[in-house]
Amino acid sequence: MSILEVNNVNKNFGGLKALNNVNLQVDAGTVHAIIGPNGAGKSTLLNCFVGRLEPDTGSVTFDGQSLLGIKPFQINQLGVSRVFQTPEIFGALTLIENVMIPAFAKRDGAFHMESWRSVASEGDLHAQAMEMLSDVGLDAKAEELAGQLSRGDKRRLELAMCLVQNPKLLLLDEPTAGMSRGDTNNTIDLMKRIAQRGVTMVVIEHDMHVVFSLAEKISVLAQGTVIVEDVPEKIKGDPRVQDAYLGGAHL
Ligand SMILES: Nc1ncnc2c1ncn2[C@@H]1O[C@H](COP(=O)(O)OP(=O)(O)O)[C@@H](O)[C@H]1O
Ligand SMILES: [Mg+2]
Question: Cα of 38 to ligand 1 centre, how many Å?
């Protein structure tokens, strides 16, 4: 059964067709990777799932409900969380505070800074946030400022900020970008643990080691169109995929 259904989505930026009749079905409880060369439209597509962009035409349905025309925080409250391509964390706050904010937002809706004082004193949310930090291996740094973290740790913090929302669907835009091989492998293990809990994941990823370690289904996007969708074993040798990358990636 598919949890996310994308039908004939088109998105133009001026004269540029960023998405051209995109169709995608993500089965509940699976890890679905979206790969493709730079500029293929991967981030644009993800933005259409979280309400940051509205498709010009087409439909996006999550759990039987249309995601079009509703606000990002409402989509988030339906159970969709996202790790952005560029980490979006609060650098001047501690790690534990960073993780408490999305927990609060999921429960109470759009976050307002003036409510911060009441959030910070909520024991339940604090305990949940702490659990998530230990999940991603950052519990020892809970009271440090997020802005001082390494790039890999910032990404892990972002994952904790998503997980604390107990999402049904987790969207990850290049989760291992800029990470060392060691950090990448830790992230793969972490994502495997998340998948085992039944969380559906859509992951955009350049690193083929990550893609083939995690994905059960792969959609290949090129110039705004899904050119192939298949299981990893079939994608590896597909000449259309090799062509799309023009030797830019090693499959
Ligand atoms: N907000 C925008 N305005 C204009 N063009 C954009 C915008 N966002 C993306 N694009 C263009 O759309 C195409 C797809 O971009 P993107 O979705 O970021 O690709 P990917 O994530 O696959 O690298 C690119 O040509 C990019 O320059
Ligand atoms: Mg991108």
Answer: 9
